[in-house]
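Whether sequence alone determines local backbone shape is best considered at the level of individual chains. We regard such an encoding as a compact summary of how the chain folds. The sequence in question and its structure tokens are set out directly beneath this paragraph.
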Amino acid sequence: MQDVGRAFRDIYPAIVRGNMRRGWTEADRKEQLIRRGRYVEFNLLYDRGTLFGLKTGGNVEAILSSLPPEVKWP
């Protein structure tokens, strides 16, 4: 496990540096919004913790505030 952590520590900065100057296109943004939509779908339909909170009178605002503010579905 420590080897995995060290490998991540060593390679991650290089990956980030390699992508820092990469342009952000409208297609990239669309893909990001679709991925966020899938995250919302999973949380609201399949995540047992979220469902439990919603069904048992949990703090709905707190539960929903963890979701992204903008999403898109294909």
Remarks:
- The chain is about 70% helix and 0% strand.
- Helices lie at 2-19, 26-45, 48-55, 60-65.
